[in-house]
Amino acid sequence: MSLSPDLDEADQPQTFGRRTGRSFYAAPISEFRITEDDAIIGRLSSRHVAFHAAAEAEQLRAWEREIEILKESFAKLGSPCDDWQLLLEIPLLRLAKRIDAVVLAPGVVGVIEFKINATAFQSADRVQTERYAQSLSDFHEASQQRLLLPILCAERARAKPLSTTLVEGVGTLMEANATTLADALLIVQSHVDRNVAAIDAHGFTYLPMRRGFLYLVAIMDWHTRKVLSWRISNTLEADFCVEALTEAIHKFGPPEIMNTDQGSQFTSFAWTDRLRRSGVRISMDGKDVRKLTLDNIFIERL
């Protein structure tokens, strides 16, 4: 059980533009492959300055290498990918993050997170990439009707077999390095559905929030997946969580055990005292971020 930001009076879906922040770079693959690297980096840098200070040298080097890896990978795929779209540095306002690269193909959205110079696939990087893909699935209108395939590219990591399994329209994570990214993109290509309209880069839409976040807490029965009670709040105080817990206990009786993450609401005295007074064993997810995400996946999908 965890807290999830909820949409606050969402406007009509809009493109990444005036209100939501369009990707820093967008072009068909055919155009990307023949555009000078310096021109692409110049466009990325100019957009970066609009939001932040001038790009650091480390960021510029990372962009240079990412562009090089992408061009090499698309060259291996050849002409079948020429009409796909590539977006670089795509803002995810809900997470206050940017996705490194998104590939738009008919019926498929590939989400690529680069870790330049990385020699291994780290748990935190896996979770980050999966979360980006899930965020697109939940909050980007066009993506909801297409397969989402997340790819973590750790540049110097040891190569491993690549495959993906679809779960509710989102593929399991593919782990590639600079050499095998092309193989991951071939898997993307294998899922292309020409009967589904390709997404234009300017039609890659976001469901914006007019006035920030509301926070949703839900008490769920793990066995039946039934939501027993819920509350929303515009603050992260513990009170509304305790109210939801009290309602669930009142309606359905106390459970044997309650599992949460280690958010401050769930480590507070008000929360833990309510559980102890009802004779409920307390379980909290530890530091294994991958296990934490899997434990919370049902509540995060509400």
UniProtKB/TrEMBL annotation:
The Integrase catalytic domain, residue ranges: 189-302
Domain of life: Bacteria
GO function term, MF aspect, one: nucleic acid binding
InterPro entries: Integrase_cat-core, RNaseH-like_sf, RNaseH_sf, Transposase_IS3/IS150/IS904
Gene3D superfamilies: Ribonuclease H-like superfamily/Ribonuclease H
GO BP annotations, alphabetical order: DNA integration
Listed name of the protein: Integrase core domain-containing protein
Organism: Paracoccus homiensis
